[in-house]
Amino acid sequence: MKLTVDSGYLSPWALSAFAALTVKGVPFTLETIDLSVPRRPEYAAKSLTGLIPLLEDGDFTLIESTAITGYIDETVPGPALYPQDARQRARARQVQSWIRSSLQPLRKERPTEAVFLGQRFAPLSAEAEACARQFLGIAGRLLGHGGDHLCGDWSLADIDLALMINRLHLHGDHLDGTPLPERLTAYADRQWQHPAVQAWLALRG
């Protein structure tokens, strides 16, 4: 298999696909492209959108991280990437869909450069702060069971949720002068130590 990701290793969706292959323990080739320059025609021919991540499995190509991780989980032997229980698995995928399709103000004002590069940005706008409050409230409800993971068993959704928390946590954001809930930051810190995340972070050298 071959996985193409961004050369800056900043994409959360590329991280998800990379983590899937890493957890499965399957050998794969990692390639990178510079998203700031036009795509090569041969890459555009493989990717419907010209974006990343792109998975190649022989002559089969696939884009969109949730499609990629679902394909890997179903076709590659090894540890499960999602809970075995159908309802818990659905909840994990629900969280992934929510994170990918919502929270735009927060993602815009706290891009992944804050997470992976330690860059600092202006204080949150009123819109982004409201988005952050909503996000933290929902995250608190999702983790209200007090367990180590989002849906009982570990899943890729844990990495996705931890990354969203870390957009605020690693940036040092407070809301109304109050630190983020310790339960959420401890969860994010714990998930960030996952070997697949650490392998991704190590790619930057």
From TrEMBL:
Biological classification of the source: Bacteria, Pseudomonadati, Pseudomonadota, Alphaproteobacteria, Rhodospirillales
Provenance organism: Novispirillum itersonii (Aquaspirillum itersonii)
Keywords, comma-separated and alphabetical: Transferase
GST N-terminal domain residues: 1-80
EC numbers for this chain: 2.5.1.18
NCBIfam families associated with the record: PRK15113.1 (NF011693)
Class of this enzyme: transferase
GO aspect biological process, one term: L-phenylalanine catabolic process
One MF term in the entry's GO annotations: glutathione transferase activity
Protein name: Glutathione S-transferase
